[in-house]
Amino acid sequence: MKYKENIGGIEADVFKKNNLKNLYIRIMPPEGDVKVSAPAICSDEEIRNFVLKKIPEICKVRDKFKKQPRQSKREYVSGESHYLWGKPYRLEVIYGNNKYEVEKTPNKIILKIPEGTDTLKRESTIIEWYRKELKRALEITSKKCERNTGLKANEYRVKNMKTKWGTCNIDKKRIWINLQLVKKPMECLEYVLTHELVHFIEKNHTNRFHALVEEFYPTWREARKLLSEMPLDHIEKDDFYEEKDAE
Questions:
Q1: Tens digit of each residue's pLDDT (9 = 90 or more) over 117-154
Q2: CA 170/CA 2 separation, integer angstroms
Q3: Domains detected in the chain
Q4: Structural contact between residues 147 and 137, judged by C-beta atoms closer than 8 angstroms
């Protein structure tokens, strides 16, 4: 069941689901749309009270969305700027290739593609190249973070997420990393990995959690600041990203 409701001046999309046990709220970029997921048995009053308690947090996140710069829409044509590990590279598109290839020089990302390749295929080729770059870095950086923390994940996965840099399944010891981290400085990846590993022994963001992150990665504040200040990718309001609800 889905419906819209104005709660304390906040327009929210409410989803009631049979398979949920708890209430969840998501604040979606770029405009801060509010989506509430609730167990089917939840009363409207419970949902309203839940959202009302979250209004200060909703306003804070919306303000953050407004302040952080976001890149214009990419067309994947020559001359555009594309980031890799925090550094901007000029994109050069070369048509006439028999297959889809991406190369990196000190200052350029070179996309070699067949004639007539459309925008979506150019985009997907770059995205897959980014995915390989991130997975390659993950192999090294995850081992470093595991040594530093003494904690170990059973599996690391990469996916595009709108609102999180990382998330984890504590029971399965599985960590997901946001594909967009490949565009941020390497220390941001190290911080997010450390953050998610610490959740294996401290589920919530308690004082102990932050103390452990501080112990294992003392420069985490600088990395978090980079994540909050560097330009984000352009996204459309209704872009779909595979992402779980967050409590």
A1: 999 999 999 999 999 999 999 999 999 999 999 999 99
A2: 30
A3: 2-67 (no CATH), 81-229 (3.30.2010.10)
A4: no
